[in-house]
Structure formats: C-alpha cells, structure tokens
Specification:
single chain; 2 strands; Flagellar basal body rod protein; Flag_bb_rod_N
Length: 120
C-alpha cells in the first residue's frame, strides 16, 4: 500500500483532478459564450464520489464524473451559456479545488512529520 492509497488521500486526489476538469469545461463554456447554437456543459461528480468513498480507495480512483449538456436555451441564437451560471459554477469549483489543495498540503505535512519520527 502506497502513501496515497488511503480513502482520504484518494478522495483528495480525485477531487483535485475532477475540479480541474470542471474548470476546463467552464472555461470552454465561457469561451463559447457568443457562439450561436453552442450548448454549455458541466461536470457532475460529487454524488459519484460520495458513493465511491464508502467502497474505498480503488473505487474512488475510478470516479470520472459525468459531463452534462445543457440543452435549454433562452437566447435567440440557441446558445445555452449563462454567464451568471458559469461564473457561479467557476467560483464553487475554485473553492472546492482550493479546499482540496489545503487538505492535500495537510496530508503531505502529516506524512512528513510521521516519516521524521515526530509525533503529530
């Protein structure tokens, strides 16, 4: 078993990876804000990740999330990108990513302390 094969560590790593993927999708949506007919996308992974946590690190590592396409459009050009929704989603995703980075930093500090033989 490796240092990052625990449920907590794998949850952090998966959250980092999927948050980064979600940010890429949001950036793509924002880049296509003025593209007629463009359908915005989002990445859903929180429920899948929560279910995988109960099954352990291997299940967590398999979580890929699901890309959802928003087909509802309120604009005449049939573009479904909402600037308000995208900026809100981006803020939530960045907060989730930053929280996962802090958890990762805590975990690596914890490992360093233990490997040096010091008490936590």
């Amino acid at each position: 078993m490796g240092l990052f094969d625990t449920t907590a560590s794998q949850s952090i790593i998966t959250t980092l990876n999927l948050s980064q993927k979600a940010e890429t999708i949001i950036a793509n949506n924002l880049a296509n804000y003025d593209t007629p007919g463009y359908k915005s996308e989002s990445l859903s992974f929180q429920h899948e990740l929560a279910a995988a946590i109960a099954k352990g690190p291997k299940a967590i590592a398999q979580v890929k999330g699901q890309v959802m396409v928003n087909t509802m459009s309120l604009q005449p050009d049939l573009n479904s990108v909402s600037m308000t929704q995208q900026t809100t989603d981006l803020a939530k995703t960045q907060l989730l990513y930053q929280t996962a980075v802090q958890a990762f930093n805590y975990k690596t500090t914890e490992i360093k302390i233990v490997s040096e033989g010091r008490a936590l």
